[in-house]
Design goal:
The chain is mainly α. It is built from seven helices and no strands. The longest helix has 28 residues. The protein is globular.
């Protein structure tokens, strides 16, 4: 029974991955409130799976790999669908996706050409992701008619520019960090 309970964080991660196509479909159909609700549920599962993994001492190799993949799948799907539907400019979505591809390529290069096995997130990467999440949520709520109810969330434009600045800066910061890390000898494997 204890082993089964330790799988709950992984099941929440898998549930988040399962939500990805539905969020994309709702955005495509311009049913933004439903997309925002599923996006919020996905965000809650992300926070809950991390908390449970720590609380239950249930961290797993699967969770360490699948959790960031689930996050990137969700955000990437949203940015691509919004760009295809011309809600967001392609260059904007390309900036976000390009940063993620750059990070992935640097991690792969580290795995292939060095003994480094970790490419930890930075505070700038976390702030960039948080800004992206907040922007997408506010944008979906505004387009879903929240602004028509007299509750318009005026911070959308500010978040738009914040996402641009933090995404660009965090991409450069990751590149600088990776180059510095790749130039230093890896610690002995444990």
């Amino acid at each position: 029974m204890r082993t089964a309970l330790r799988q709950i964080p992984n099941l929440l991660t898998l549930a988040r991955i399962a939500l990805v196509p539905f969020v994309g479909i709702y955005i495509w159909k311009r049913e933004y409130i439903y997309a925002a609700a599923l996006f919020a549920i996905a965000g809650f599962t992300d926070a809950l799976d991390g908390w449970l993994a720590r609380k239950m001492n249930a961290s797993s190799r699967f969770g360490l790999l699948a959790d960031p993949i689930a996050d990137k799948l969700l955000l990437s799907t949203m940015f691509v669908v919004l760009a295809v539907d011309r809600v967001l400019p392609w260059w904007f979505s390309g900036l976000v996706l390009g940063r993620d591809v750059l990070i992935l390529l640097m991690a792969v290069a580290g795995l292939l050409f060095t003994r480094h096995r970790g490419f930890p997130p930075t505070i700038w990467g976390k702030l960039s992701t948080l800004a992206q999440i907040l922007y997408l949520l506010v944008m979906l709520l505004n387009r879903g008619g929240l602004d028509a109810q007299g509750v318009e969330i005026d911070i959308e434009k500010g978040l738009y520019w914040t996402v641009i600045a933090l995404t660009a800066f965090s991409g450069l910061h990751y590149m600088w960090t990776a180059l510095r890390l790749l130039r230093t000898p890896a610690l002995a494997e444990t």
